[in-house]
Amino acid sequence: MNLVTISGPPSSGKTSVILKTIVSLKKQGLKVAVAKFDCLYTDDDVLYKKAGIPVRKGLSGALCPDHYFVSNVEEITNWALKNEFDILISESAGLCNRCSPYIKGIKAVCVIDNLSGINTPKKIGPMLKTADIVVITKGDIVSQAEREVFASRVNTVNPSAIIMHINGLTGQGSFELSTLLYEEALNIDSLKGMELRFPMPAALCSYCLGETRIGESYQMGNVRKMKVED
Amino acid sequence: MAEINNRKISDLISEFPFLTSFFSDNGFEISGKEELTLSEYLAQFDEDEIEDKAIDIDNVAFQINEFIKQMIAFLGKEDDVVQTVTILPGYDKSGVAEDFEKLVIEQGQIICIVGPTGSGKSRLLGDIEWVAQGDTPTGRSVLINGEIPDKKWRFSSADKLVAQLSQNMNFVMDLSVYEFVELHAESRMVQNRDQVIEKIINKANSLAGEVFTPDTPITSLSGGQSRALMIADTAILSKSPIILIDEIENAGIDRKKALSLLLSEDKIVLMATHDPVLALMGDRRIVIKNGGIYKVIDTTDEERKILSTLEKMDRTLLAYRTKLRQGEIITKIDNT
């Protein structure tokens, strides 16, 4: 089985891209399942079910969703292995633009959209910079020039990635993506011992532990102060 | 790679000036550090900084190497001239073979695509963009200059075969016309930038009815002005040899001039349209039905004659539109 991790900022079009791409994967005779990770709420699992795609969802609630992802990806992979799927696609939102759930040896796709602004590629960390494939969406509502500038900025921060445009509404481009996802050579039978491509950020301060009061005396652990000049 | 690691930053930048954008877009502050070698520069970051800035130290030299390779390929080559695009037949949605031997589209031609919504126009375009090799749902193949094309047309972000101008596109950036075109020129590594920008703005103004200035914010351009700027910018700055147009609304823009501007820049124009005036301006039209190419029709001489009558009717309609806009009362149909 192949595991494919797809992530990207909220509302960038991940679910639409995945749904359209799975249509083509199924036509190639592949059995596909999805693991959807989100923070507080998602009804995307309903969309997947409606499309006849086996899905498991995980809500991280009070935990960082990417940490939650890493803690659960092995179990979800075992579920997919047991059910003999050919591809498991994991979908997770990179909520702070810093994290990335990508794993060494596992295909990584980042979905970002043209409307997010021309400087966005600079602002996104490893989620964009270490992806194998970058999918750019919402190209149908901006000008050709903006599409070209955006794609070239993505290329500057991740020159080795394949950059593709997909229209999440019509599915234009999703067939093409489907041909790049499954590779026999990337089959796995366990995630045990595999490693993240990039460490998650450190975060362990009193606020992580439920503190709500503001003020220096309540702050403990990994706390850093910004320099505010007069 | 080791080689790059051992070179001074100042050295790298003087040989590959485009690396400045790599460093700045990746958040690497290099001023004052130019005399360090790349590995010395990277060695300066302590663990906290590496974590804070999310730098993938081991990967930097690899990505720089990749970037240099791409840029050299991009700058060094003669523009790839795409003289012809050939489409070899596949199947429609019911699996019936398309009934044509091959379809050759040449530089400087306008090809119209007609057919009901959902008939497969987008898939045809998708096949061209992805330079299909019998590996798409239609089974079509696409040749460039009569040959099986280079893979780069699929995967390189700098070499896209098709640029698109569609009806509902907007500008979403908060920039002046000048800044906007400059940004695009920058990303295309254009040399004589000022001249090119001026040329684009002048051309756009010659297409649009109402004139705009370089310092007009792009978001306050009228519909016609926006379309004119998009067309002029795409014609002159986009490297894609094929331009796909999804209708051009008949308002605030000289459509004939717009098409001839694209053709003068050696583009191949594919136009999805149901407007008879536009459709008959094409050299040929492809009729799509049930996912397949159903017919390829060369525009006949008779159709060309009819076109000039249609254009006249078009102008008459436009004249009435103008009158209405100016608050006039329409009293009689003027048939001149």
Q: What is this structure, in a nutshell?
A:
The complex is a heterodimer of chains A (230) and B (336). With 230 residues, chain A is an alpha/beta fold.
Explained architecture:
The complex is a heterodimer of chains A (230) and B (336). With 230 residues, chain A is of the alpha/beta class. Helices cover 30% and strands 18% of the residues of chain A. Chain A has a seven-stranded parallel β-sheet with strand order 3-2-4-1-5-6-7, with helices on both faces. The longest helix of chain A is centred in the first third of the chain and has 18 residues, at 65-82. Chain A is globular. Chain B is of the alpha/beta class and 336 residues long. Chain B has three domains: 2-76, no CATH class; 84-299, Rossmann fold (3-Layer(aba) Sandwich), CATH 3.40.50.300; 305-336, no CATH class. Helix content of chain B is 43%, strand content 14%. In chain B, the strands form two sheets. In chain B, strands 5-6-7-3-8-9 form a six-stranded mixed β-sheet, sandwiched between helices. Chain B has a three-stranded antiparallel β-sheet with strand order 2-1-4, with no helix packed on it. The relative contact order of chain B is 0.12. The chains are: A alpha/beta (230), B alpha/beta (336).
Keywords, please?
heterodimer, A: 230 residues, alpha/beta, B: 336 residues, six-stranded mixed beta sheet, three-stranded antiparallel beta sheet, globular
